Amino acid sequence: MSEDTIRLVTIGRIFRRRWRLLAVAAVVGALVGYGTSLVLPPRYTTSASVLLPGQWEERELLTQSEIASSSAVVDRAAAALNWGGVSGSELRDQVSAEATEGNIVQISGTADTPEHAQRLADQVAQQFVSFTARIAGDSTDSETAAGPEALRQKVMQTNRRITALAEAADPGQTVESVQTRTSLEQLRTSLEEAMKKLDEADPANNKANMVVMGPAAPPTGAAPPTRTQLIVGGALLFFLLAVVGHLAAARADRRPRTGPEVAAALGSALLGTVDVPGERAAHRPEGGGARARVRRLLGTDTRWDMPEPRASVDEAGRQLRYRRVCAHLRTQLPFARRLLVVVPDGDDIARRAAGQLVTEAGSASPGPSGRGDPLLRVVEVSVSRPLVPDRDTESGALVVLSAGSRTSEELAGIAEACADARHEVVGTVVACPVQDRPARTGGDPPENAAAAPPERGHATGGPA
After folding, report:
1. CB 126 within 8 A of CB 58
2. Distances (CA, A) of 330 to 96, 323, 375, 398
3. Which of 75, 139, 305, 437 has its Cβ near the most Cβ atoms within 10 Å?
4. So what's the pLDDT on residue 6?
5. Do the Cβ atoms of 169 and 177 come closer than 8 Å?
6. Residue 297: how many CB atoms within 10 A of its CB?
7. CB 354 within 8 A of CB 361
């Protein structure tokens, strides 16, 4: 799988074969999220809105929102609230402001209780309005303030002069007198409209007329992340980490999975592939102890990335594979002699295949040359520290193992152990688990399943 694309079937296989481990990971993540919620107290957030009347550009609204959350405003709010041990610098992290549509600055306050959050938002809004009004008053000096007032006085004098001119005009209904009075009235109207626009465009008036649009609403719930969100988020995070960990381990796996790859790692020839029927429970490694029980409970005692066992043809087809392996042995070893069948420790599939191979070798009839199969003796070797019995009556080793169960380094270690014991690795047999079909309810057994000759029965044991 190391070079394969991750497919949905791979994810489904993880869920199906590691669902207990994934469930435990999700529970642990939920507990971590719950513990985090105890360390981080709940927070509550509410908002107060301030209306800015008049015409405002976008950059001016952004400036006002920055002023609302500035230290000058927040420090005044902290002094007005007078919360013991809470300074303005601490409150600045709990206050935010945002300019929204309709010339509204929305001021948000966050605190440990709903009441504190509501009071904080309201107080900051009030201090913001007061601060902007003070800025408008301070920025208007005497000369600047006298300018608009003097202009108003000039306009009033002009209006009086227009009235006097209108009265001094010819009271008759001549065309010239009517046009003169009409022009004077238009001038009066233009002056009044200009003064009205001047008053509306005065920035000091705009700032002074800011309005707090009612008190902040009490928070109805805690601000994110809530305790429920932390628990769910922790469970989901640990669940995803467990899945990603399985995928990463599978991508990094370099175990030989085909017969030629296994034989190449052992430095020998592939004699064949045999099928071993059985249930999934039979493939679990043996062993006791608390650690083994925990691994069995979580389902980590078996490989998850192995493909589903394919359906077996029948008993006759399986026996034919074993006979072909024995025939290859006769071809490579023309003279019958004793061989060690080396099986990695804990490989139940390989151990059962080796036992069946010994049985077939002992029950096989002599070949055309009149010579039978070599006598086989099964030995299990540890993979961590492989040790093969020294050469005695056996003159070679036949390695039987299941595909994808060992790394190339472990297989090389087994080959070196055979060489140290002066055993030549004459071949490799790969055992594959299959799903056994239901047994036949009637009919005669296959002809090729006859009992073995009694004189060869000692081949299944140790040296004769």
Report:
1. no
2. 86, 11, 11, 13
3. 305
4. 61
5. yes
6. 12
7. no
Residue 420's SS3 state is: helix
pLDDT digits (tens, 9 = 90+) for 232-271: 999 999 999 999 998 888 777 778 878 888 888 888 889 9
Ranges of each domain in the chain: 8-40+225-252, 143-206, 259-439
Q: What is the mean pLDDT of the chain?
A: 79
Distances (CA, A) of 25 to 20, 34, 241: 9, 14, 9
Q: Can the peptide bond before residue 225 be classed as cis, meaning omega within 30 degrees of 0?
A: yes
Q: Is 297 in contact with 20 (CB distance < 8 Å)?
A: yes
CA angle 385, 390, 395 (to 5 degrees): 120
Question: Cβ distance 36 to 248 under 8 Å?
Answer: no
Residues 6+ apart with CB under 8 A from 325: 271, 272, 274, 357, 360, 429
Between CA 15 and CA 225 the distance in angstroms is 29
- Whether pTM > 0.85 for this model: the answer is no
| Nearest alpha carbon to residue 306 among 23, 5, 15, 17 | 17
Give φ, ψ of 254 to 5 degrees: -125, 30
> Can you give the length of the chain in residues?
464
Q: Which amino acid is at 105?
A: V
- Report the alpha-carbon distance of residue 414 to residue 342 in Å, rounded: 9
Provide the 8-state DSSP code for 190. Answer: H
Low-confidence ranges of the chain (pLDDT < 50): 1-4, 142-143, 207, 281-283, 369-370, 440-464
Q: Quick check: 268 and 332 in contact, CB under 8 A?
A: no
